[in-house]
Design brief:
heterodimer, A: mainly beta, five-stranded mixed beta sheet, B: alpha+beta, Cytochrome Bc1 Complex, Chain D, domain 2, 3 domains, five-stranded antiparallel beta sheet, 8 helices
Chain lengths: 546, 255
């Protein structure tokens, strides 16, 4: 009897060790088979940020308590979502000016580092909006990381040694040479797919795929078509050459159609469309690309000829739902422009669009799903007030979809507006203390509700109606996550980490973490114990039930 | 020489008249943002009214070198070699906002016409005005209102005058007043120090730091009326000028 037990334990340990050695694409594609792990940026390739774990429930979430903290050296915004593979947690923090990235492998139960890797990007790297990274990817025993100087790194997950360091594009001194990668790479079969940021500086964006083993580039698709390509006619003159449309958030993948989906950023220059007349394709769009070739299969543009900065780089969320009485493969999208969308992800067909915050720049859609603009709601010489704000109704913070509740959860801002003047950086209206970019440390809040507030909203894709909302006094740059026990985790600029009932929005638990939350929560399990982590300030915090 | 003087006057006149030199497209927001940058950066040497460097009166568009607004933007960004005017890291847009602010200053009147006495103003501030029952200067006085130890470095005379006679006209967001009502009906009013989804932090009227859990409150909200009384009918024109002169003289102690 004893012998059998020992054997069983040995076999179990052996299996765990074997798994840890090889994160196959099949494992990444089927995270539901190993709910204890978190193998890609938003848990699954549909970006639902939904975990099958159920130990933490709406009844016991009040018993969550701190397990460990990992503190980084950098006071950059800590935007990464961690990965967990069989008890090992991998994460990274962006570099301060002239400083280094920190990439770490931690014991997911104690927070103790197995190894730490420092990586120094080129001094020429000057991304427009934060020296951040939103996460790593893993395939096999290799971690993948994009950098603010547009390198793609392969790192040995066991040792933290760099296996190869590929220059995706050389960063130079000119603004249009400030190529950067700030999002977690996407693993598709044997490829690593990343997008290039820098659109605000006039970098012409692109999405590219690399051989996971060698780092060789396999395909590259520009987000702004060149002369002679379809869509180039939507740019006046040579404006397409510096058209922007950067890519700075992770994409989604649908194996059934072999399509990879990425959102694209604003056209450049941001706040002045006079020199880039036309719709400016494919800025502020979602692109569906053949994952093997990079060929564009379809696109949908959320904000044609954007002059406010409504990047559409939110992570695409894919879901299979009932739609008008039959199953439909859809894409859910809460956009920086204030509108929520349901698209058919096989064809790009527009199914529904509706504001999820106050929107003043458009009123309704035409039959093809093109927004109908309200005259005058564009930047003017005198300045005009446009809602939502330049930083958006939501931004990059990842949303969640729960197949259990059927609800789409979005962290956003309400009552925020922008004063848009031709060619000038927009001023914030109502929001005290200027433009409310996120930062690591806490800032005092004196806002009245009419000056802007943060909110987590649960939207029913059918009709995009609001099922509940949870309001916060200050705005939020934190993502949300849901679990199969109907717990939603979120947070905000105030530094509270929150657990809500995903069906009602009722507050279950909260804790003040002493720094702004600029990341998306994630969860994992080791030895039967469920943990939930979130980065706040410059640290990563892990919680579990007491 | 005369031609030069004439052109300077002409430029000054154009600016005072809201002429077309610069920022004809500036918005109220530009001016506000420019003012913030000016107070944080330029006012350290030029003073809040822009007239503390000899031969230069930014608020009246009197410059040594600049002839156009583009010149001003250039000087703000690159400084003036061989002088105390340093380069800055401002963008063109920010520099333009500062210039837009200076234009707006040039278009408004200066403070009271009467010449004030700093000493008389101090006496009024500390005596008849009872200003120290709410305000603090160099460590003396209450903490309920804004500390005025360096207000002369931060605000222009005309702004200070407005604050004395019409205190509610502009209340900076970090000087807001908040009121909570406890479950037992007790009301507490104070200076708001921080507000979040769950708590209210304030300095109450007894200068006690208070933290309230919103779940334990019957009511809470902003008080939009300034707790400061207007001194419009309480001070003579001369007294008002004296108080403003005293406030302007408060430049803070050297660090």
């Amino acid at each position: 009897m004893r012998r059998t037990l020992v054997l069983v334990v040995l076999v179990a340990a052996g299996v765990a060790a074997l798994q840890a050695q090889n994160v196959t694409f099949d494992r990444i594609s089927h995270p539901e088979k190993e709910p204890q792990n978190w193998l890609s940026y938003s848990q699954n390739l549909f970006n639902q940020r939904f975990s099958p774990l159920t130990q933490i429930t709406t009844a016991n979430a009040k018993n969550l308590e701190l397990q460990w903290v990992w503190q980084s050296k950098s006071l950059e915004k800590f935007e990464a979502t961690a990965l967990v593979v069989d008890g090992v947690l991998y994460t990274l923090q962006g570099p301060p000016q002239q400083g280094v990235y920190e990439i770490v492998a931690l014991d997911a139960t104690t927070g103790r580092p197995f190894w730490t890797l420092d990586y120094r990007p080129a001094l020429e790297a000057r991304p427009c909006c934060g020296r951040v990274s939103r996460g790593l990817a893993i395939l096999g025993d290799t971690l993948y990381m994009g950098t603010i100087d547009a390198h793609l790194l392969a790192i040995d997950a066991k040792t933290g040694k760099i296996l190869w360091d590929h220059t995706v594009e050389k960063v130079g001194e000119k603004a249009i040479e400030k190529y950067a990668i700030t999002h977690a790479p996407v693993v598709i079969k044997d490829k690593i797919v990343v997008g290039i940021a820098g659109g605000d500086l006039g970098v012409r964006g692109f999405i590219c795929a690399f051989d996971a083993k060698t780092g060789n580039e396999l395909w590259r698709t520009y987000t702004v078509p060149a002369k002679g390509e379809p869509g180039n006619e939507t740019w006046s003159g040579d404006s397409w050459k510096t058209g922007g449309a950067g890519v700075w958030n992770s994409g989604a993948y649908d194996a059934e159609t072999n399509l990879v989906f990425f959102g694209t950023g604003n056209p450049a220059p941001d706040w002045d469309g006079r020199e880039r007349l036309g719709d400016n394709l494919y800025s502020d769009s979602v692109l569906a690309l053949d994952a093997d070739t990079g060929k564009l299969k379809w696109h949908y543009q959320f904000t044609p000829h954007d002059e406010v900065d409504y990047d559409s780089t939110q992570v695409p969320v894919l879901a299979d739902i009932q739609w008008e009485g039959r199953p439909r493969k859809v894409m859910l999208w809460a956009n920086r422009n204030g509108l929520a969308y349901v698209l058919d992800r096989t064809s790009g067909q527009f199914l529904l669009g509706k504001p999820f915050v106050k929107v003043t720049w458009m009123d309704g859609f035409d039959a093809k799903g093109r927004p109908i603009r309200i005259p005058g709601q564009v930047p003017t010489p005198e300045g005009s007030i446009i809602r939502p704000h330049v930083l958006g109704a939501t931004n990059w913070a990842p949303p969640s979809f729960s197949p259990r509740t059927g609800l789409f959860y979005v962290a956003g801002w309400e009552n925020s507006g922008t004063i848009a003047t031709e060619g000038k950086f927009p001023g914030a209206t109502g929001i005290p203390n200027g433009t409310p970019m996120g930062q690591a440390t806490l800032t005092p809040n004196f806002k009245k509700e009419e000056e802007g507030f943060g909110v987590i909203r649960a939207l029913d894709p059918h009709g995009l109606t609001r099922k509940w909302e949870f309001k916060m006094n200050d705005i939020t740059w934190a993502g949300v996550m849901t679990t199969a026990s109907d717990v939603l985790f979120g947070g905000g600029k105030e530094g509270y980490f929150l657990a809500l009932d995903a069906r009602s929005g009722d507050l279950l638990w909260k804790i003040a973490l002493g720094g702004q939350i600029n990341s998306g929560p994630m969860t994992y399990s080791v030895n039967g114990k469920q943990y939930v982590t979130v980065a706040a300030g410059s640290s990563l915090f892990a919680f579990a039930l007491r | 020489m005369r031609a030069t003087v004439f052109s300077l006057l002409a430029i000054a006149g154009a600016l005072l008249a809201g002429g077309p030199l610069l920022a004809q497209h500036s918005t109220a927001q530009d001016i506000e943002d420019g003012g913030r940058v000016f107070r944080n950066t330029c006012a350290n040497c030029h003073g809040p009214d822009g007239n503390e460097v000899a031969g230069i009166d930014l608020g009246r568009a009197v410059f040594r070198r600049a002839k156009t607004d583009q010149d001003l933007v250039q000087i703000i960004r690159t400084g003036v070699a061989g002088t105390a005017m340093p380069a800055s890291d401002m963008s063109v847009a920010q520099a333009e906002q500062v210039v837009a602010y200076l234009r707006s200053v040039a278009a408004t009147k200066r403070s009271a016409s009467a010449v004030g006495s700093i000493e008389s103003g101090r006496a009024l501030f500390e005596g008849k005005g009872s200003c120290r029952s709410c305000h603090r200067v160099d460590g003396v006085g209450a903490r309920l209102g804004p500390d005025l130890s360096n207000v002369g470095q931060l605000r222009r005379a005309v702004e200070l005058e407005t604050s004395v006679i019409d205190p509610g006209k502009e209340i900076l967001y970090n000087n807001r007043t908040y009121r909570v009502v406890l479950k037992d009906g007790t009301a507490v009013t104070g200076r708001l120090l921080n507000l979040d989804s769950f708590t209210v932090l304030m300095l109450d009227s007894k200068e006690t730091l208070r933290s309230f859990d919103k779940a334990n409150l019957r009511d809470f909200g902003f008080v939009d009326v300034s707790p400061m009384p207007s001194y419009k009918d309480k001070l003579t024109a001369q007294e008002l000028a004296d108080v403003v002169s005293y406030l302007v003289s408060l430049k803070g102690k050297a660090n």
